[in-house]
Amino acid sequence: MSSLHILTTSASLLAFALLTEANRKDGYRNGAESQTTSAVQPGQAREVLPAEMNKRQSVVWAHGLMMAIAFIVLLPCGAMLVYLPKFKGRVWLHAGWQLFTYAILLAGMGLGVWLTEVKDYWEVQNGHPSIGVFVVGALLLQPLTGLIHYWQWERNHPALRSASISGEVHRWWGRIIVILGIVNGGLGMHLAGIKTGRVITYSVLAGFFSLSWLGVVVGTHFYCARRAGVARPEQSSTTGTQRVRSEGEQHFRTASTTKRNDSSDTD
Questions:
Q1: Is the dihedral of CA 148, 153, 155, 161 positive or negative?
Q2: CA distance 116 to 12
Q3: Nearest Cα to 12, choosing from 79, 111, 96?
Q4: 3-class DSSP state of 219
Q5: What is the value of pTM for the model shown?
Q6: Is residue 211 a part of any domain in this protein?
Q7: What stretches pass through the bilayer (predicted)?
Q8: Among positive and negative, which fits the CA dihedral 24, 30, 35, 40?
Q9: Are the beta carbons of 92 and 80 closer than 8 angstroms?
Q10: Residue 21 covered by a domain
């Protein structure tokens, strides 16, 4: 629990640092501007000051950066860690990496929720806020299925490990949610009015890390299938040799017995 607390605290500090730096650049050192609010009559829209607009834009950027880095870089890289050559602590490295990423996601979602309250994004027919809350909530299933799969992996016979339902759910649920999160990032960029060049950069990075992840998964699958295919003929060949040897010994014994019986009849 202490390591999880450290990870969560680190993510919170990262969010705070991003906001502090953004606010410093956005002109908050001029305090007089933030105090020049005019009286708002009933039914009249409140005037949004430049400082407030700058703050909102800073939160939009912090939210977008944190969620984009988490979904297109950290989560795929964390998933690929389990395909590294086996070493002690590999599973826990994967778990710690993903928990740290999830802490960043929670901090980023907090900024997103603040934005929805300020700018009424819930009323926009975009779907980005609702999908974002669903995606971050759905990832809560991953630690549970991961722990169950690890327990089954340690307890069960090696022949039963590949048949773990929790393992399949953990893998495929994670892949689906990460892809959905990447797509939702595109919706968020459209909602925020991000320039086309930055959308292209996001798409290229998302494609690169997603294809790298896919390549590692597919490559590992074929490598394991090839190793299993090589092992089976060797096992079959050994079994066949033993069978032929046993049949030969049985034939020799039968022939020897028949010969002895013929000799006895002759005598």
A1: positive
A2: 20
A3: 111
A4: helix
A5: 0.66
A6: yes
A7: 60-84, 91-111, 131-151, 172-193, 199-224
A8: negative
A9: no
A10: no
Which of 237, 63, 98, 64 has the alpha carbon at shortest distance from 177? 98
Rg (CA), the chain: 31
pLDDT tens-place values along the chain, 267 residues long: 444 444 444 555 455 444 444 444 444 334 434 433 444 444 444 555 677 778 888 999 999 999 999 999 999 999 999 888 888 888 899 999 999 999 999 999 999 999 888 766 666 667 899 999 999 999 999 999 988 888 877 676 555 555 578 888 999 999 999 999 999 999 999 988 899 999 999 999 999 999 999 999 999 888 888 877 765 555 544 444 444 444 444 544 554 555 555 555 545
Q: What is the CATH number of the domain that holds 128?
A: 1.20.120
- Do 142 and 173 meet the contact criterion of CB atoms below 8 Å apart? yes
Nearest to 200 by CA among 213, 189, 210: 189
The tokens describing 140, both together, are: 């809560």
- Token pair listed for 166: 């929790």
Domain limits for position 8: 2-15+49-231
Number of domains in the chain: 1
